[in-house]
Amino acid sequence: MSVKQISVFLENKSGRLAAVARLLASRGINIRALSIADTSDFGILRLIVDRPEEAYRALKEEGFTVSLTDVLAVAVPDRPGGLAPALEALSEANLNIEYLYAFVARHADQALVLLKVDDRERAVKVLEEAGFKVPSPEEIYSL
Amino acid sequence: MWNPKAECLPREELEELKLERLKNTVRHVYENVPFYRRKMDEAGVKPEDIRSLEDIRHLPFTTKEDLRENYPFGLFAVPLKDVVRIHASSGTTGKPTVVGYTREDIEVWSEVMARTLGMVSASSEDVVQIAYGYGLFTGGLGVHYGAEKIGCTVIPTSGGNTKRQIMLMRDFGTTILCCTPSYACYLVEVMAELGVSPRELKLRAGLFGAEPWSEGMRREIESNLGIEALDIYGLSEIIGPGVAAECLCKEGLHIWEDHFLPEVINPATGEPLPPGEEGELVFTTLTKRGFPVIRYRTRDISFLLPEPCACGRTHVRMGRVKGRTDDMLIIRGVNVFPSQIEEVLLSLGYTEPHYLLVVDRERRLDVLEVWVEVSESIFRDEVRGLEELEEKIRREIEAVLGIAVKVRLVEPKTIQRSEGKAKRIIDRRDLR
Ligand SMILES: [Zn+2]
């Protein structure tokens, strides 16, 4: 149930994010979700797109340092506190969350959150047992 | 081995031969080159004062500036009509340094280059691709004559046009590649981009020189191409490629001592250093007629290994050139070579590292920044992981250099790629 996330190494200088967006747009690739983690020198741009393999190749050809990372998507109720039970379930199962970020789009009236966890398979089980829906990669790409 | 008799000559006979040839060379320059006669007269040395090899230390040094000041033919020891070839090195500033060869000199050059190719048992069965520049630069033509003397099939591709180099290497069945080590790495990179596998090639060996490189780089080239990669050494002022070459033991480069007499000196004082100690390499040519040089200061940093070599060759070895006295950065009084940074990066599992040393002066203090390109081999999808990597690189470099550095991770292709010598240093200290 893993969603392919594109991770791109970027230096912290103006125009780099725009260059990525422009390149993907020119290939007709749609960005579904995006987050940036950065320091004063560099950042990692994380993207969920509709065609991850193609985006990966396009960025690589353009000379970016890029990798495909497996992440997990989970649907949570779109209201205050909706995310908390999911995180608690993972924490109780001793699953480590390296990072998470949210989708802008909604899925069947629920908010979508992307998680990078150390044991993805177990995390899916824990979340489903706690009553959360874990959308398939296909559902995510085609949102 | 190309010439077993000469290459394995007993030390005693070799010493005798060297002394006889040194005497001849000193007499030759004293009689035919006013510059050497004047300098020797000033130093109070006559050719007959050279009675032993140690007496060489009474002779004055020759420097790159001396060559420039005598532009173009001032140091030639024969009339121009006896010179059959001229090469010149591209000085980045001022006039080039010009060297000339008689027909006999070309023969010597071909011989030492044939011995150099003989390190990988080159024969008439071999297809040798020469991707050193042809022209005024000695690299291309120097290797060329040696390969032809052996009877190899020579492909004189010269430098550049990397895609075509790879196509010809595959289609012509090149077995031996000759180019700069950084270009060999670049070829590997482009081959991967083009999807050409080393298995499609017949390449079995490479002779790489004209710039300093490291053991780590050798491992990279050897494993990526599946070949033996040997270091070769030479400079146009002495003859060009073919002054020294590694044997398959890969523990130093044999200097062809019957033609070139090496010394290692303290670059600051000019004092000769005992074997094994690191310093500036100095060469005296022993057989050249057109452009002999006496005690030429190469600015290359190395040391001599007098111990016998397992390969059976008796000629003394020099250590891999670590850098140049003018490449060497002095930061807060510490000598820093780009090759040291490279070793660190390779030891951390960074394949084909691209890096740049940027030196600046902040509040009268030298600051060294090391830029490292983040390639897929070291990229990870976690800020903490990359920060740890940055920190690890910094700690390792500081442990090797003994001075504080800043490490900056940069995007690929930030650092200028070259098809010849790699640019590893930006020194901004002189700009203000
Ligand atoms: Zn040897």
Automatic annotation (TrEMBL), chain A:
InterPro entries: ACT-like_dom_sf, ACT_dom, ACT_dom_pair. It comes from the Bacteria. SUPFAM superfamilies: ACT-like. It holds the Pfam family ACT_8. Residues 5-82 form the ACT domain. PANTHER family: ACETOLACTATE SYNTHASE, SMALL SUBUNIT (PTHR40099). This is ACT domain-containing protein. It comes from Ammonifex thiophilus.
From TrEMBL, chain B:
The keyword Membrane does not apply. The keyword Thylakoid does not apply. One of its GO terms (molecular function) is phenylacetate-CoA ligase activity. Residues 333-429 form the AMP-dependent ligase C-terminal domain. Residues 79-283 form the AMP-dependent synthetase/ligase domain. GO terms for biological process: phenylacetate catabolic process. InterPro entries: Adenylate-forming_Reductase (IPR051414), AMP-bd_C_sf (IPR045851), AMP-dep_Lig_C (IPR028154), AMP-dep_synth/lig_dom (IPR000873), ANL_N_sf (IPR042099), PA_CoA_ligase (IPR011880). Pathway: Aromatic compound metabolism; phenylacetate degradation. Its EC number is 6.2.1.30. It catalyses: 2-phenylacetate + ATP + CoA = phenylacetyl-CoA + AMP + diphosphate. It holds the Pfam family AMP-binding. Keywords: Ligase, Nucleotide-binding. Monomer. Belongs to the phenylacetyl-CoA ligase family. Catalyzes the activation of phenylacetic acid (PA) to phenylacetyl-CoA (PA-CoA). PANTHER family: PHENYLACETATE-COENZYME A LIGASE. This is Phenylacetate-coenzyme A ligase. It comes from Ammonifex thiophilus.
